[in-house]
Amino acid sequence: MKQLFFSAVGLLSTTLLLAQAPKVNPDKYGKMVSADLLKKELYIIAGAEMEGRETATPGQKKAAAYIENHFKQHGLLPGAGKGSYQQLYPLYQDSIGKTSLQVYQFNFGFDEHYSVAPNLGAAGNWQINELVYAGFGIKDNEKNDYANLPIQGNWVMILDATPADIDKPAAPMQGMRVVGNTGLQNKINYLRTNGAKGIIVVSKDFPKGLATPQKGNMNMNKPTTATVPVIQVSYQVASSMLNKVVDNYAGLKNVSAGKYSTSVKTSIEKTTLQLESSNVIGIIEGTDKKDEYLVITSHYDHLGKRGNDIYYGADDDGSGTVSVMELARVFAQAKAKGHGPRRTIVFMTVSGEEKGLWGSAYYGNNPIFPLNKTTANLNIDMVGRIDPSYKGDSNNYVFVIGEDKLSSDLQPISDAVNSKYVKMELDRRYNDPKDPNRFYYRSDHYNFAAKGVPIIFYFNGVHKDYHRTTDTPDKINYPLMQKRVHLVFHTAWEMANRDDMLKRDMPLNMPAR
């Protein structure tokens, strides 16, 4: 449900809320937020040299170094401990080496007639003399293709199809069709759980329209060593293994389930690579309340490159990244002129957001500054564009998410500073936990909220260039972006300088993620 909040806040409440800042008009510094500097930095952060800033790639590391240098240049102290600006965290990625598949002395070609997904199965060398063919491999309340078949200790062949779609052509897929294919994943999980020695999946997707990637998905946790190999094969390989004459993929539905003699040799080499990514952290130390903290975040990673195509990520989230950089510059200027914050302000750009909020999750589990002493997290993710569905003043709005949760102080502070200094339309439609977009869960503030830290998430909504190569710096509305950063500045100023930390007086009460 859409709710728009304009500038209606009583003068008395505004005065009380804003009374504790240092004895200077903060707008002296708030007006220093520069659209020109935001633009200058964004053309660098979202430029081709950064190669889309995908986590644990050279482009991401270039961006991290650039942000670190910005913090140093403006006098921020290193915030990652031991004199470092970067909180490093490990990532893991399986990589496939040499593979082979021989059936009755005939060698088949990788991606022409078989493939192996890096993340999916075990490595090793196998001689297969018998296998169990289980047809569709379906086990549910209505159908059991494994009835009377010996799964335990045997290699099992199944179809990557259902009776309803076996005659339909395959859409080109990349690698093993598991992600997004819960039916196949469920089949594989069932066979693993029931003791299959190995799994052969017969797919329509040969020869491969897209090459199977040699490297799998990254993971935050080191993968457990797989014990069951999983190999994907064409219908021609399957028919050779079964010693059956089959003219096409659909012909396999007529092959009887059972145990078959065969002669197969296969080998798979696999290694696990340890990679590294980082959160970039700079701080402006507080004065009398320096052991309390305000954290301002954005994610600086994006989707990287696909072939020669670069996902520039100007709005998502280059806009938030340069906003944090600009806020750091302005607060550093205020401190240099004797108007530093009472609480320590932590400026943090995190990586791994596009992979699953990894960088902020790592910080949440390994906080450098105590979370119980962190008054709030202000998270900036996409503040440079206009949502085409927005019905109000599209040049003077921002979505604010999370102010109705965890602390009763959040929304009054937003309303007070907005009324006094910025006068934007504050749209809170996405505060509804039942909102189907689930934006509350989809950016890095969530990993602070989950630990009980009050949060505000600043967001412009989605647009046609979201997660596309066309999300470029030339499409950013820099004057509007400046207004949004101006609002964050005043919110941060108030939170960093008020007498008390924000109350934590409201349970989160969110549905399970």
State the helicity in percent bands: 25-40%
Structural class based on helices, strands and sheet pairing: alpha/beta
Low-confidence stretches: 1-21, 172-181
Overall radius of gyration:
28 Å
Quote the CATH topology of the largest domain: Aminopeptidase
Q: What this model shows, in words?
A:
- The protein is an alpha/beta fold.
- The chain has 2 domains: 4-92 and 276-497, 3-Layer(aba) Sandwich (Aminopeptidase), CATH 3.40.630; 96-273, Glucose Oxidase, domain 1.
- It is built from 12 helices and 19 strands.
- The chain has helices at residues 11-17, 27-30, 35-45, 58-73, 182-193, 235-242, 314-336, 353-356, 358-365, 410-422, 446-449, 478-497, and strands at 4-5, 77-78, 86-103, 106-107, 114-115, 124-133, 155-159, 198-202, 215-219, 230-233, 258-284, 289-299, 304-306, 309-311, 343-350, 374-380, 397-401, 425-427, 455-459.
- The strands form 2 sheets. The chain has a 17-stranded mixed β-sheet that branches. The protein has a two-stranded antiparallel ribbon with strand order 13-14.
- The protein is elongated.
Topology:
Blueprint lengths: L3 E2 L5 H7 L9 H4 L4 H11 L12 H16 L3 E2 L7 E18 L2 E2 L6 E2 L8 E10 L21 E5 L22 H12 L4 E5 L12 E5 L10 E4 L1 H8 L15 E27 L4 E11 L4 E3 L2 E3 L2 H23 L6 E8 L2 H4 L1 H8 L8 E7 L16 E5 L8 H13 L2 E3 L18 H4 L5 E5 L18 H20 L16
Parallel strand pairs: 6-7, 7-8, 8-10, 12-15, 12-16, 16-19, 17-18
Antiparallel strand pairs: 1-18, 2-11, 3-4, 3-9, 3-11, 5-10, 6-11, 11-15, 13-14, 17-19
Helix pairs in contact: 1-10, 3-7, 3-12, 7-12, 10-12
